[in-house]
Design a protein that fits this description.
Layout (H helix, E strand, L loop, with lengths): L24 H16 L4 E3 L9 E4 L7 E11 L3 E8 L2 E11 L1 E7 L5 E7 H14 L10 H27 L1
Antiparallel strand pairs: 1-2, 2-3, 3-6, 4-5, 6-7
Length: 174
């Protein structure tokens, strides 16, 4: 099942997510649907808040043949080495800006089997993990860009927010 991806301006994108207390069949089904939604939208990651679910989990597929289902993640360590590259987000369509992130991170999470994993990630995977992790704290990548870059996208953001509000009104009036 393909979910609707929530866009900039939606309340669910700025809320702190709550931990998953138990991995249920419903959670597993949501994770599978999120993978399908992410692939359908040509994304590399999708967090639960992006589909309106206030829970601490996300999926990542960076094209390395491994689809990761990450539940209750923690970032234990950030490297001092920083990487800066363009980022985009399915919830902020059409905007790509440079973001600085730790090149390497040490993480702990539960997979869909309930196994606790601890691993070190670097490069693109570390960047994707940090981006999706931010969603769980109600942080969008556009909050991590330079003040100049924010000014450059201000009008686009207003437009996305107006579209989001218009869609809400249309749904309420339907």
């Amino acid at each position: 099942m393909i979910y609707e991806i929530k866009k900039y301006g939606e309340e669910c994108l700025v809320k702190e997510s709550v931990p998953v207390s138990e991995i249920t069949d419903e959670i597993l089904e949501i994770l599978d649907n999120m993978v399908e939604t992410m692939h359908d939208a040509n994304g590399v990651g999708l967090a639960a808040p992006q589909v309106g679910i206030n829970k601490r989990f996300f999926v990542i597929d960076i094209g390395d043949g491994v689809v990761r289902k990450i539940i209750n993640p923690e970032i234990l360590e950030f490297s001092e080495s920083i990487s800066e590259s363009d980022e985009g987000c399915l919830s902020v369509p059409g905007i790509y800006k440079k973001v600085k992130r730790a090149y390497e991170i040490k993480v702990k999470y539960m997979n869909e089997l309930g196994e606790v994993k601890e691993e070190t990630m670097n490069g693109f995977l570390a960047k994707a993990f940090q981006h999706e992790f931010d969603h769980l704290t109600g942080t969008l990548f556009i909050e991590k860009i330079s003040p100049m870059a924010k000014r450059l996208i201000a009008q686009k953001l207003k437009h996305i927010k107006r579209e989001t509000e218009r869609e809400h009104k249309n749904r309420e009036n339907a």
